[in-house]
Amino acid sequence: MFRDRQEAGQKLAIELAKLRLQDPVVLALPRGGVPVAAEVAKALKAPLDLAIVRKVGAPGNPELAVAAIVDGDPPDVVLNREIVEAYSLDDDQLRVLIAAERPELERRRTAYRGKRPPLSVAGKTAIVVDDGAATGTTMKVAIRALKRRSPREIVVALPVAPTETLTQLASEADWTVCLSQPGRFGALSLHYLNFPQLSDDDVTSILEETAVRWTLADIATRQSPPTARLGNGADQLQRTRRTDR
Q1: How confident is the model at residue 243 (pLDDT cuts 50, 70, 90)?
Q2: CA triplet 68, 32, 81: central angle to 5 degrees?
Q3: Quick one: 137 exposed, middle or buried, by C-beta within 10 A (0-12, 13-18, 19+)?
Q4: Which helix (H) or strand (E) is 60 found in, with range?
């Protein structure tokens, strides 16, 4: 169990530092992934940005995703082809459903980033961070969209997730790093002592603080990343690299 998201991020950063990743860019899944990712970015001396994902619900069943939109320039649309086929949706119907979700994606982009453009991951190592993953659906969508943006590698970094979810994510990303895989996952909040709900203002504040820190770090002499071990125990840590590359 983690004390809070900040502690989870600090422990993740230690494990990520051991991989000696080249040109890392840390991407948080908002809102819960932002404080975790901020600690990772701080420790790795890496820039922090967001991977904003908006689900596109099926007709009459908004909780079932037929697609997802991932913020970018331009945004990426990732289809859930099995659901598209199950609902017999044609291109025109999909365009209508996707268009209906674009305003919320734009709202979130404006709320979180303002006028700042998203960071490029081309040729860099994209580290995608969340505070945990139950099904991993949002993380999987983010990975598939990032692959279209020509990163050097994609790394999934999670404090906690079920083993079956990690297996699925490991088939999508180049690296998966997860500190804990409990036998009974339950609600994500059960794995934290302090797990407050975060607001848009919380996200913006963390991003602004990290941007200032990154600017100062870019000016100052960079220190080496952490090497000490603070993990949850070797039997809990999972660090996986794809071999079918």
Answers
A1: low
A2: 15
A3: middle
A4: none
Both tokens assigned to 137: 């659906």
| pLDDT exceeds cutoff 90 at 186 | no
Q: Collect contacts of 223-230 with beta carbons under 8 A, ≥24 apart.
A: 223/45, 225/13, 225/17, 225/43, 225/44, 225/45, 226/13, 226/14, 226/17, 226/43, 227/14, 227/17, 227/18, 228/14, 229/14, 230/10, 230/11, 230/14
| Dist CA 179 CA 159 (whole Å) | 5
Q: Is the dihedral of CA 29, 35, 38, 43 positive or negative?
A: negative
Residue 32 has pLDDT above 70, yes or no: yes
What is the pLDDT, as a whole number, of residue 245?
57
Residue type, 48: L
Quickly state the pLDDT bin for 226 (edges 50, 70, 90).
Answer: very low
Share of the chain above pLDDT 90, in %: 78
The closest of 146, 156, 178 to 21, measured between CA atoms, is: 156
130 three-state secondary structure: coil
Strand 125-129 and strand 153-160: the pairing is parallel
CA distances from 33 to 58, 94, 148, 158, 159 (A): 26, 29, 22, 9, 10
pLDDT the model gives residue 237:
78
Tell which residue, 101, 104, 105, 66, has the closest CA to residue 87: 66
Residue 136: pLDDT over 90:
yes
